[in-house]
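Lecture notes, structural biology module. Today: joint structure prediction for complexes of four components.
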Amino acid sequence: MTSQLPTLEDVAREAGVSRATVSRVINGIRNVDPVIQESVRQAIARTGYAPNRAARSLVTRRAETVALIVAGAGDAAEDAQDAFAARVFADPFFGRVVSGVVGALRPRSMHPVLMFADSEAACDQIVAYLRQGSADGALIVSTHGEDKLPARLAAAGVPAVLFARPSLAAPVSYVDLAHQDGARLAAEHLLARGCRQVATVSGPLDVPAGQERLAGFRDAMARHGRPYVLAAEGGFTQDSGAAAMARLLAEHPDIDGVFAANDLMAQGVCQVLREAGKRVPDDVAVVGFDDSYIARTARPPLTTVRQPVEEMAATMVRLLQEHIEGTRTEPTSVIFEPELVVRESA
Amino acid sequence: MTSQLPTLEDVAREAGVSRATVSRVINGIRNVDPVIQESVRQAIARTGYAPNRAARSLVTRRAETVALIVAGAGDAAEDAQDAFAARVFADPFFGRVVSGVVGALRPRSMHPVLMFADSEAACDQIVAYLRQGSADGALIVSTHGEDKLPARLAAAGVPAVLFARPSLAAPVSYVDLAHQDGARLAAEHLLARGCRQVATVSGPLDVPAGQERLAGFRDAMARHGRPYVLAAEGGFTQDSGAAAMARLLAEHPDIDGVFAANDLMAQGVCQVLREAGKRVPDDVAVVGFDDSYIARTARPPLTTVRQPVEEMAATMVRLLQEHIEGTRTEPTSVIFEPELVVRESA
DNA sequence: TTGAAAGCGCTAACAT
DNA sequence: ATGTTAGCGCTTTCAA
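The predicted structure, tokenised, for the full assembly:
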């Protein structure tokens, strides 16, 4: 740290005006003589002044900061504590969410404080953080499970927007995908390819996205005269996808089409199929979900259901800002439509 | 937002003491009668008081926040702007870094503001942010290329610690890995396996880690009587690894051992080998680098050189805190030793 | 259009 | 051991 940073006072003295005037120039308030404006600007440049955020926040009551929270029901494993974030980011899907959020925040000159709600204690810390006014609101994306955080934040009157509908109902805004429609796209694609023995590796059934993708898939199949669909539950990880596929294959070696509820599991599915001597898509067609980075780099590249994550993230930010500014008071939901991206796996 | 949050004043009145006493209790300063302490605590609980961070920061001149910066030389692609973060997190290595940093920050009750320095404008914004005192310091991890940020921050007197030595020398602290030692471990493992035609898919040669892993590999091979090592440059991405392997294989179909400078590229290497009808490790042994999530889930699981990322991140945080508190003034470097993790690919 | 002055909520030096 | 008091740097009425 250098000695002492210049303050408004210094700039004002340098420019020969009052603090108030300098403040007006900085905050772009009209009613300032252009000539004075210019001289103030020069004084700012000369002094190398940068406004002190704490002082400003104190009076505006805005932190210009939002909490970007990755929540997951506290895992049983204690030693998994610090690995939580690593596991989360193992799914490129979360990278897309973060990317989208940061991109949408930037032009609004708001900044995200990254927090992981992976334990009860972490939740407490987060609630305290927000109550302190350290952040103006929260953006929450849950990995799975029943998360009490949304309800707690709602109760504390903290503006919040979720990525995906919470399993535990709470009066908060969220953006989400029409999961059932996405699953239908996958089903119809597999059927159109002529698959006869179709199975699905579902997501965890304690999370809405897992349930709905499964339900949507089953419904679509039923509507096409397939009353029964083989299913094995996975946990949205590559390993769990591989394990689920192995179970399915053991009992039904004739499977020729698989819908995996996310790309990571689809990758695991492909590995198991290959190891079983099946070719993708020739012997078994595989459709994933998300359209994350992995879908493009997998071999073969995955046919998948795309979530418009970046748009969804941008909408989260917009809703949150409206809540913060008070232009929107009621919880709101915005549902996006998925899109089928056909590559090589199906 | 509810009406008005309680302040120190409110708590003091409620407890029948002065603001100063309440402040002392909150900040755990001794010299407070236990009885009064207790009554203050109760008053805090009754009022639901939470200290206002802006007010505190204003006087302590501490934000209790650090910038967690992911820097990459501004890519040529303009449209790649908002995808930068997504691409970064496509490498699980960065997830580990973030995980480690957040884990180390938490017990110190500091919070990370996530920022991406992917363009000149973004850098300016970051420097401005830090100069405002919005964060007490910066933790920087670069993806590649010549990054001017460290030098700018050093010049601005902002405490900063880097993950990995910067390509452009700057008077800042950093933690790093003994890359050459890591490459040596890989070389010796391949030789011990009996590989005769060994090649390497290097990282980008404009980043120290890329250069050193290549140099270390060549040196180790030379020391074992192999004066010449086939090499193809990659970009630390899966695709680039695949492309590099394809080039190598086209000219040297007899390659039987490959050292890829990171796990993501090793994965690409394995894909290409498999598609060329080569078995890993039977026909070609492959060693990766990093030991990220991908090394465990790849098929076959990758033998790789592990970076103790979590420890490195913890050290970054410790160094940064010392710089912030002024207990450490000189730039410091801490170098960690890698470790070979033998799995199935070699 | 500009300036003077009153705080925002907190900590810390000083006084008691 | 506790209270009094003076700011921290900024925005924002209110006067001029």
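Point to remember: Residues 179-306 of chain B form a domain with the Rossmann fold fold (CATH 3.40.50.2300).
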